[in-house]
Amino acid sequence: MNDQSSPESESPSEPEPAPESTAKEKNTIELKKSFEVPDFAEITLTKAKFTSKVVPPKPRDYYSYYEVKDADNIYLETVLNVKSLLTSGKSSDEFASVTVIYDEKYKYNSFSTIEESGGSDFTYTNITSIEPLKTGILHFISELPKEASKDDKSINVVISINGDEFNYKLR
After folding, report:
1. pTM of this structure
2. Burial code of 59-68, b = ≥16 C-beta within 10 A, e = fewer?
3. Are 75 and 50 in contact (CB under 8 A)?
4. Residue 118: is its pLDDT beyond 60?
5. Rounded distance between C-alpha atoms, residue 81 and residue 139, angstroms
6. Which of 119, 129, 161, 163 is the most buried (most CB within 10 A)?
7. How many CB atoms lie within 10 A of CB 153?
8. Are 100 and 156 in contact (CB under 8 A)?
């Protein structure tokens, strides 16, 4: 006969896992308040707003922009300032991704672009690196039905960074 106790008898003394809501609250972020993912990046969410046209903040005579083609839709533009804490450059599209959850059930992915030339234009994130201790300004663009911008149903912006999720409650 084995004198060791069975796993069932040990389980009541083990601490119970923390509820999921605690983990979500821990990773809740606020607009214009920076947070750090250690040894990876310092991130600041600077904007999350609805718009039918995404333009660079300081456009000049010639610039790239993104405009909704379907009149029944609208963009949700999420802007992140990303300061690299890495020891070498990394493609800017590998720092973060954004998903928008509308009414707690509808998920919308985004595509990204990055500011260049001091904010006068956009360029592709997959060909632009953010070098160590430098900051890139990333714009994530999600296309949602226009009704999402007008009703009072919840909108959560989920930012995935280096395997962790951070949540911003737009409303």
Report:
1. 0.84
2. eeeeeeebeb
3. yes
4. yes
5. 9
6. 161
7. 13
8. yes
Q: Looking at this protein, which amino acid is placed at residue 51?
A: T
- Residue type for 14, please? E
User: Residue 117 is encoded by which pair of tokens?
Assistant: 């030339």
Query: Can you give the chain as a three-state secondary structure string?
Result: CCCCCCHHHHHHHCCCCCCHHHHHHHCECCCCCCEEECCCEEEEEEEEEEECEECCCCCCCCCCCEECCCCCEEEEEEEEEEEECCCCCEEHHHCCEEEEEECCCEEEECEEEEEEHHHCEEEEHHHCEECCCCEEEEEEEEEEECHHHHCCCCEEEEEEECCEEEEEECC
**Residues 33-57 pLDDT 10s:** 999 999 999 999 999 999 999 999 9
For the record, the structure tokens of 16 come out as: 């119970």
